Amino acid sequence: MGSKAIDIYYYSPSPPSRAVLMLMKALGLEHNIKITNVVIGESKKPEFIKMNPLHTIPLITDNDWHLYDSHVIMQYLVDKYAKDDSLYPKDLKKRAIVNLRLFFDACYLFPKFGAYHAPTLYSGIAPSEENAKAMDEVLMHLDHFLEENKYTAGSHLTIADFAIIPTIATIDACGSADLTKYPNIRLWYRRTKSEMSAFGYEEVNQAGSEVFAQFYKTKLSAIQ
Fold first, then answer.
1. With a cut of 70, which residues of the chain have pLDDT below it?
2. Residues 16/110, Cβ–Cβ less than 8 Å
3. Which of residues 81, 106, 133 is at a domain's end?
4. Minimal CA–CA distance to 60: which of 74, 40, 47?
5. Which of 27, 82, 134, 170 is 20 to 30 A away from residue 6, measured at CA?
6. 14 has catalytic annotation
7. Is residue 201 domain-resident?
8. 61 has which bridge partners?
9. Marked catalytic residue, from 12, 14, 70, 209
10. pTM of the model
């Protein structure tokens, strides 16, 4: 480990923030949580933008070196600090599958999640049928990935599961999709929650999902 604890700039309603914090706990990394409320613009302050010009969270500082994007952060943390490569295999084919799922989250699942919820959160507009259909479609793909695998990238837990479960948990907490339609997701969800309980699942992911859901439901009720 480095000589300093790793700083994580974090906001609990943010699924990517929760992914990184749970991974840090899984790796046993000493860390300092720097709460950064993006809703009130704390990630747009000059001192933050100097560290991350995209003003996104999470952001980590490891020995005065800054890194952002949750997927890249998780790759970095495992490669640097993990005792073995089980969470992010060095075998090229196995690593490629993990990367596929990380890109699936970054390019499909999380953007569809955002497109569904953002109009309600920021513009007071109810979710559209188009965005609901798009989110169902991406969940169908995830369910397909899990048909022959216990976890999103194979037979054991990887950083792909850390990346994906915060978004699924938030969808579940908000009631934004009917997860009973996806039996493979439900089995994986239950299994992964149990396995991640040792990494602070309840206090990090469940609690953060509920904070997001409370905010979302309050906004939704105001327009119904």
1. 1-3, 224
2. yes
3. 81
4. 74
5. 170
6. yes
7. yes
8. 7, 66
9. 14
10. 0.96
